[in-house]
Structure formats: structure tokens, C-alpha cells
């Protein structure tokens, strides 16, 4: 397969380029009888959409979703749900001056090498806009998980070297960087605005917590729950790393420290991040991802053009100086897709 | 599917528990006409096998492989290659005293929760012995990659807080921890031996470099090359994190630093780790994984038994105090499987 | 997975109900650089669309296709191609009187049993309208196959007991039943019109020939080329059987008759239908499918309603008295999808 | 994938050539806790094994199975079950005289075209011996289906033009052709013995009935239950066609005849063969397959050799003059695999 299908049972197929007519998704394998409507999905779309604040791009993609199938009289019917998002704020001409050069950090060069042909409008299929389809599909998974009592929350943990010092969940959606520490959030905004003003960008760390997943989800060997979450997260454009529980810090720990011991109340610690041997322990699933700085910056950079000549490039246009706040709902969506799929896989195994 | 099949085109299925009669693998989709024999594969098996040095477990599993199909007169025929490894040093009775308790850090608890039934001999399917089958399959992929000019090398980068300071590739297979710095290796061995003597263990970091992968391998959206490598690595039991190129350090970098600029000679830096937009750039692919400390330690730990009672446990037996040196060939094997698969996927796309 | 994804490498995902807003398809894995436009695909859509003649339903679904992605400046780019068909002639109210009864021969009963919920408008997902998406996807595969020199042609071989006696390929698209014998076609039309006038319907046999497939396509064991074609054909709603080459007649033949002997010019006969051991021989691939009589008939039939009561039903509305002429392009489309997929699988194997 | 993996959830991978050391299978996704042992599986193996009677080949492959994993203390554990069958009656030298010629009806030519390399011993991977692995895997599925109350029975319906006139289920396993009519069986044996004596062979028709499948199994669109059964059956070497219920006879029927009407007791007829719209109706699932005459015959045939020369060939050796009696357990095994898989898929959908 060619990479645009994800999931075994709760299975999605996506399509669409940033500057074509639409992006969209088909969601197959959805439990019939789930109550869902466009407004429920739209809430998640609005969390991802551009133009939410001073730290996100001012592009106006309204990301209005249209359900074309699989829902009847407000309930899922069990057949594929297609969701469409028409692109309304395309400016392909804005890219005409860069159509012949490879933007550093972008997939321009690798796509041309792979396909031998290039859709130079925006980033084509490599655009972050592709994640809108994931968020739409993830919202359906999220609704099903809500019915199971599972919650998924992600938030910015660190931006440009500024780390959250507290975990104030209630504040996450109230600050423009979606940080879990409102005071750190203020510093983060300042840093992002400053970098934006000098034509630069920054990266960060996003953390995700999944609660009330029962013990026993995930597969041994290759489809371990953490392996599948890792794939899901690394499949998001700007993500360069992932760690579960103690993560890379485990490398410097001793077994007596890292092992999560138990008593009658359950695990005494959660260094494993809620997954052992690839299977959920019943504890909170916790992971963090490394988000690279936005590649599109307006300061000049050295590059090549398609004619093999060296040149300089500035990526003008409307770009997020830090992608963390908008990647948060994408992380949640991908996590929802993986967990919902594994509920179904476990049901199939035990049937 | 239930998780024991890996790969799209170069596809493997594994089976086997640590204390059953055998472990093994079926490798499907192998290019016909590749010259291969048991001795080529055995070299890789011997790198993974226990009992290689003072820092690995003294168990004597000779890991002698047997090819049962798919090779005729020294060449692959294109049909499935089955490889079998009979277990010869099983001591299931050694596990009888722990059969009713959940060993901290092990999958005992999660397997019982998942399956409702438990094969308590060793770790059953969750044993590291399962990776022997991966190494056998990976050796076939490696042979094909050699024909393509691709090389894959992994090594220990850090153990118990001791980091390599140089990259001396020639020294890797000459020291018992497979570190890339022979001086650091000496310190690492001391540390591991000390921890072992006090009934404890430690983790580490393993790095992998894949060379001569042409630009253009990998898929957009979900099956990005880094996403697939991440899944492959996190599917190895003790791995708790992965990062590509600059990895988590990218979170504190600015776009102007992180972006890999180009001139006529190619990329000027490799912060991306050889993959942009999920597709190989032609530069070296570089990633690091976090390896947790071995869960089996002989110092006492608190846990529960299957009757719901609190108890104390010591995991006696023959265990590696640090799994890094033996995980190195497993990392290489999984990397080979992913890269070989993507060569074939690219061929299918362009056909 | 839930059944709406087809193909390994040339992979399609479909969605849509007959009386929802749209049906559509995402086609993934398409070779980049293929010249294609909407008009090429529209030709195939028009062969499937209703209202072509007196023997097809007068519904006016214009089946106008819209390409939403994956094609740029007249060429495929290698990323997913989404094609949308908006439903323009929906009359859900026409089905209100049958919404509580199970139409004989239709999937009303089985869908309710499967999903526990029912979209009663038309046949929902079980409608023949779903095949429009297949024809659109098949047209892309057909274009690629044309570039390879492969042709796929299907035609009506028998209708209501009237069999073609000649094979006049040029006449197929010139008669309303798409029969390969223009004289038989006249009798077929009479029969269909008569049955239609008395509120009944009839079945038939459709044959398909695939030419210039090189020897060597198909896989041993489970994914034999004939096995995959069989699945593809039986996945079309009204198809109840398939046979290759001599087919069921082989059951009464002797080995000395059935075996296709060879001389320097190739195979002397083609009882195998172009596939031996699941792999193409290089000879023409020939198979026939059994098409059941249209289930929707206006004469009264006994059935049950959803309240468990016996009742009588007449399926009024606009229906094809014989589905053969419209199933022809669907058979061709599915055959194209299978063959194109196996070209790519073979390329992957040999890479 | 390369074709040796079958099933979504109840997933098998097979390997092995007729004259290599072994054939075998890995069965993944088996429900944990099913009571199974080698003797239960051996019963099915013995039904398929050669040398059962005068109408089957006298080769002595004892087909003794060995379970290597996934079963502990008499119960399935939920992890992959590997089953091995060592080849004990190999005579590769018997094939040395035909190693350079293409046997008519065999896959010798197509395999060489596909792979460019050839394992000429027996039929290699294309040998009927490959089906032994299927029967082993099918026995596990059968055991699970028994727990669900589902039964699967196949039998010879017609051989060499001689058709069964009654359906006497109790007699099936008591006559050497596994016919459902003991009187017809006597004629069939005579015919087969006669053809064998003159160096020829014959084909036949095998029918399969699956009982107590609840309404609602199967998927819409591509993975229809009949589509999946069709693929499963056509993946068996000698099968050239399949039909469900009325099958090809439906082509000459009218809708008013073919539609299965209902009353309170259920469907009044079963022309659909137990599947409508790809989903089980709850009625008996009935299908028939066309089995070609055995390709290996000792009378002389024209063919080519690998040097491009015309020649004559006689396929000496130990071959079944009619494969029907031995294909019966293979048909049942494949049917069991498909039905068990769809039970699990339905569980996943509804979870």
C-alpha cells in the first residue's frame, strides 16, 4: 500500500493537497449506533485550524466539515463515513516564486526524488493541511472512546527551551500555546512572537495522557501499543522523536528505580508510561513528542533549485512560528485512532 | 491481525515462546536469486546470542538456525523462507517459584489481563528470545541491502549514564558492550559488572546509522519512513523512546539552526537525520533509541501475586544486567526489514 | 478492516450510499506521471450510468466525476487520487413505503442483522450505486494498463437463457445489452422488455477477456491471480459464481483433454483460462460470471417486516430488468484493479 | 505482500515445498483458552493425507503434525500457534528427468516466468502438499467454530461426469471418493480406476455446506462473505470455478423464481446460498467448486523444455487420478478459516 491508509479495524484513508480543491477522509469500521454530528467534529477542527491567535498563521481555512456518508439520522450506520473539507483560502500563486527551489526543512526535495514529478503549490501532500483529515477522523474515534470512558488530552510541555513547571489541566485550552502551565505560557508567547518578528521559528515538546484505558490492550511482538502510538506520532510531519513514561531518562536509571512495583492499589510508579510488553497496564498512558521548529522562516537560507543551481530562499507567506499549539489536537486525534483500533482488535481476539 | 506479522512486501511472521520447543519466522516477499546460506545468517544470530561475555547472560542457547524452505541450491527462490531455532537450554522449572507472581517491569501482569490465561515459563511470548526470529529474518534483508550497497550499523552510545565521546566504528564489535568509544566501553563494563554484583541493572542508548539509502524511500502521510522505523524500534521489548537526527534537542532549536540547508554538494547539516517529510533525503539515516534497564534483577521488589496478595519477589536466574550489547543486532535487523520493505514499495509505486 | 478497502499496492477505498449526498473513492498507489483527465474517466462512468437504453433504469444520475486530488497539470502525482460523484437524482421518499419491510433478494434483512441499524433509503451501502466508485477507480487502472499494452474487455454472453453464438467484438458497445453477438442481442432485448412488462427480471452470464498480460503475474498460495479475480468479481452485488477457462466443464473432462499442451508457438489450447498455479501464462485470461436476476421486481412477493409480521411487497421504482449490460463496465473495472495491482506486486517482488 | 498470508484476524502464514525438509503454518489471532491438542488436528490431516485408498496416491507422507508454540497445558494462549510437518517421503531424484521440461497443466512454466529461477523438485511451492498446512490451520478454526455451534461439511458431488443423486451425509466419509451418494460413489471409483489404468485422470465437483452461521457475518463492498470464500476456494490449486446457491443456473432464472421469499419461519428457498449482499442470511451457506482433472498423467503430452525445444513428456510417479476426495478436507479447512475470521471481524465492528 502507498501509505495513506491507517489502522487495522478502525481504518482511515486520507487524501488531499494544501492547494487543491479539498482534503478528506474515509473512516471505515466505525461501531454502528454511535451518536455523532458535524458540530461535534467541528469542535476539534476548530482547535486545529489556523488563525486562532497571534502565535498561529493568519490563514483563513474555515475547515468546515461535510459528512457525506455513514451517518443517518444522527447515528453511525457501520458503513464508511466520508468527511470532506473544501479548501477555501488557497493562494497557489503565492508559491510561484518558490516553485523551482527546495525550501530547507520541507519535503520539496524528497518528493521530487521520490515521484519524479512535483506539485509545487504549498507543500502539496506534505502540507500540514493533511492533518485536518486526521483530526476529523480522530473526532469519531474520540466519540467512541468517550462512550468507553477513555479520555485523551495533549498539551504543550516545552517551547523554545521554556518548560512548564506545573500541570494545570484546566488552563490548557485557555492559553494560545496550549501549555499546561499558564505562567510558562506567557513566556512562551513572548518567545514565539519575538522569533516571528525576526523571521525565525522554534520547536517544542508536546505531552499526551490517555486515561482509563483498561489493562490488556495492545499486541505482543510487532503491534505493541507503544509501537503503534510511536508510528502514529512520527507520521505527523514535524515530529522528530517520542518517549514513553521515563523515556530517554530510563537510559540512565537502574532497574531497581525504573521497575514499577505494585501493591494492592496498583502500580506504585509509572515509569513505563502505562505500557509494559506492548500492552496497557491500566495506568495512565503518557508519552512526549519532540516537535521541530517550523521550517518556513523568512530569514534567508542557502538551497538549490531544480536546475541544480545554488540559490538563496526566504519562505514568505503565512506560517506558524511554532507549531506546538496546533499539533496538540493532531496528537490527540492520532492517539484516539490507535486506542479505538486496539479496543476493536482486542474484541476480535477474544471473540 | 494479531501483531505477529510485520512489513508490507518484505513480510515476516514470527512465533515462539522462550521455553517452548522452538522460535521461528517465515519471511515472504524475498527477491528471488539472492545468494544466501545458513552461515551468513548464523553470524547475526551469534551477535545476539546470550553468553558472549561477562556482561551478557550465561545461558547457552546456541541459536543454531535451520532453513526449511525458500532457498534452493544456495539461492532464494522467491517463495517463503522459513527459519527455525530449536530451544535447547530451556529450564521451565526455574520459573516455577515465580509462576504466580507478577515480576515488576515484565509483561506478566499485562499478558494475564489481555489473554486471561498465562504461560508462566520464562516470559513466554514476551521474552527477548522472540527477537532471535527477527534477527534471522533481518539477516536476509541485510543480504539484499548489501546487494543494493546499503549498510546498517548500530552501537551502544551510552550506558548507565556513561556516554561515548568518540565514534570509532572499527572498535564496536571489539568491546563487549558494542560501544563506539573503546575507552567509554571500559567504564561501561565496570559499571555493568558492579550493578550486576549488587543485583541491579542499567539502561542505555543505542544509535543506528543507515548509509547509502537513496533519496526517495518512504511514504507520505502514515507510512513515513521515520514512522515505520519508530514502530519497528518500539516493537523491541526494552525500547522506551526514539529520536531522529537532532531529535529532542530540536525542541529547543530555532528554524534557522535546525533546517538543513543545501549547496551543490548536498545537505550542509543533517539535523533531520536523513528523513524529511517521511522520505529519505539521501543523507545518512540516524536515530537513537532509549533502552530501559533490564527488568529482571535479584534485589527484592514489591509486587502482587495472581491471588491478589502483596508479596516480595527476586528475579533470580540468568539475565543480562544491561541489554544494550545484545539489542544492537536486533535494532539493525529491524532497520534492515524496514528499509528493504520500502525499496520494494518504491518499486511497486513506480512500476 | 471493514471491507471498503481493496488492493495491496494499487489500493482503493470507497464510500457512499445510494441516497446520501455522494459516493466516491480514494485511489492510492498510482504510478506518478500517468496522463489522465476527468473526460477519460467519464467515458467509463457513462457506460455504467443508468438510463442508457430501454433495458436500463431511467434514473438520471449523471455520474459526473470530480477529481479532488492527486492529479496536477494533467498528470498523476503519485499521491492519493480522490474522485467524488454527487448524487443528484435521489428520491429517498420513494422508499418510505418499503422502509419497514425486507425486499426479497435485497440486503435489507442481512444489513439489519449485521448492524442492528438500517439506512432504509434505497439499498444504502448495498446499492449498485456503490459500483460507480469502482468504475472511476478502475478507469485509472485501465489507463495505466493501456500504457502497458494490456486490454480488458467484458460483454454479455447469455441473458435469460439466450446465449451468444458468435464473438463479434466490434458489436459489443453497439447493442444495448453489450452482447458479443448482435443477433442474439436482438432476442435478449425482446426477452428483457417482455419480462419488464410483466414485472419480472432475468439474469445472465458475462464473460471477460484480459489480453497481453505477461506470463508471471499472480502469487502462489493465497493470492493467486484467479483467486484475487474471483474475490473481485464476487464482491460485485449480483454475481453468484465465476469460472476460469473451461471452468465447470473441466469437472467432466479428462486430464489428457484439459491440460494445455505447448509447442514453440505457445499453448495449444487455453482450458486454464490464462492462469496456471495462480500465475498468468501469457495467454488470454478468460473468465465468466453468473449474474442473478435483478431482485427488484414489481410483481408481488411474500416477505417479513421489521416488526416480525408477514406481508406482501412490490418493489416499484426505477430498476434494471437485467443488470448485465451495466455490470459489464464494473467487471472490467474490477479486473483492471486486480491486474494493475499485480503488476506492482511483481515489481516489488523482483526489486 | 507476497501471497502466503491469509485472513484479517484469524491470520495464517504458510511455507514449504513438497520436497524440502518441511511444510508448516503460523496461526495468529486465535482466541485464547480453546482446548486443542495434536490429535484433534491429526484427524483432519489424516483425511487429506495421500495413500488412503485405491483412488489416491500411494505416497506415504504421514503428515504427523508438531505444535511448536501457542498451546500450553492443552489450551491456546492467544499467541501464534506454529505447526510443523516434516517431509518424510521425499524423492527429489524422481523428478530429475523432468527438471528441464514444463509439465502441461502444472505451474512449472509460470513459476519460471515469474521468478526467473526454479525449484524443480516436485512442484515446489505449487505442490498440493502446500495444502497440508492449510488443513492444520483450518483444524484450529474448526475447533473454535465447533464451540460456536457452526459445522462445515464438504463432499464430492460429481466425478468424471457421474453425479450424486442423493444426499446421504452419513455415507460421505465411508466411501473412498467422499461422495454424498454411496451408489454413485461405486461408479465413481470404477471410473477413476479405469482412467488411472490408461494413464489419464478426471475432474469433479465438490460441494460445501456451512451450518449455523448467524445472520450478519460478512462485509459490504469488497470483503463480502461470498467474495472471501471465493478467493479462499480459488486459492486451492486445482479449483477452476465456484458458484453459490443456484449459481450459474441463476443466469437463466427470473427474479420471481430466484428471490428467496420469507415468512415467519424464515426464508422459503435458498437460491442465494445463504449470503445476500455479501452478508450471511442465517440460512445454510452452500457453494460448489469445479475441480480440474489431475494434471499429472502418464500418457504422453507435447510440451517445451527450458532450452526452448519441443519435446514429449509423461508424468510418471505417484499421483491422484482424481483429486476430489483429498480436496474435500482442504475446502472445509479454507471455509473454516474464512468463517472464523468473519466472526472476529464482526466482533471488532460491534465492539
Can you put this structure into words, describing what you see?
4 copies of one chain form a homotetramer. Chain A has one domain (5-350): Chorismate synthase, AroC fold. Chain A is 27% helix and 22% strand. Chain A contains 7 helices and 18 strands. Chain A has helices at residues 38-48, 108-115, 130-148, 182-197, 225-234, 255-258, 324-350; strands at residues 5-6, 11-16, 22-28, 65-67, 71-72, 75-76, 81-86, 151-159, 162-163, 204-211, 239-244, 262-263, 266-267, 275-276, 279-280, 285-291, 301-304, 310-313. In chain A, strand 5 and strand 6 form a beta hairpin. In chain A, helix 1 crosses helix 3, helix 1 crosses helix 7 (324-350) and helix 3 crosses helix 7. Chain A is globular, with a radius of gyration of 21 Å. The model of chain A has no long low-confidence stretch (mean pLDDT 93). Chains in contact: A-B, A-C, A-D, B-C, B-D, C-D. The interface between B and D is large, with 46 and 46 residues.
